[in-house]
Amino acid sequence: MSKCHAILRSSPSVVRMRFRTALAAGSIGLISVLGVLRAQKPFKEYPAIEYENFPLPKDWQHNAEWVRARLRYPDIYGYPDRSRIRLGAGRPWPGQWTMDYPRSDRHLLEGVRRLTRIDTRSVEQVVSLDGTDEIFNWPALYAVEVGHWLLPNDQAAQLREYLLRGGFLMVDDFHGSEPYDDFLGPLNEWETFLNSMTKVFPDRPIEDIPDNDPIFHTLYDLDDRFQVPGYYNWMENHITYEKGPTGRQPHWRCIRDDKGRIIVAICHNMDLGDGWENSDDPKYEEKWASLAYRVGMNYFTYDLTH
Hints:
- The structure is a single chain.
- Helices cover 30% and strands 14% of the residues.
- With 306 residues, the chain is of the alpha/beta class.
- The chain has a single domain (3-305), classed as Rossmann fold, CATH 3.40.50.12140.
- The protein has a seven-stranded mixed sheet.
- The radius of gyration is 18 Å and the shape is globular.
């Protein structure tokens, strides 16, 4: 059993105690519990909605202490087994989970290397709620476009177990709380998110994160937060919101464990993934990309220290 696998088998309090002990020894980058993991599956790339043959960074084989994982989930369009749509000229639907992948992930992780002392590599790890122990090797998990996910009961149960063992989930890039016309019919992204999230935690409330919460003050003081828009929506429509009037106000929400620690960070009505993805594009405003990076650094550091 790997060290990280073992620690996620422990209680959340044990996880945090070991993280704090490691910090006392020097820095976040010295956290021994996230060392090289023999049980991890190797890095693998998947077909994606937006990118093909995206270049691998030089450090893609680096045995890092920490890597942020991306969740590969079933979606309302039938991915992976019953896809009702195709992408382009007969290409199978790669899944809504691949939005911005892998450019967003690799830009973000390069930022983690530059802006923190966390020892990471510049490529993501794609993980699934497949009933194996693999997901427990990756303490930080990201799910994009969760207004389209469709978790079956067994996957919801494994995600609950992962989070209660000390895992951390950040969800991003879903908008509005009223129906809009999707190409396969009416869709309400907030309700679609809730349909699966309440399977994970039927008894834990979703709450707004107050400004004084530690998650906004780990590396950066994020009292002045604003909506981070999707790239194409801004370029084509010159607005920062999506999916109608209820998409105008960004919401920084969470679900907590029994001791008050945030275990699900919910970024609703914003697109931090596009902030990371387009951080090198001069047409995308620097203030949006900068906030997206600061939020990411705070959330990951919070996860490692609380």
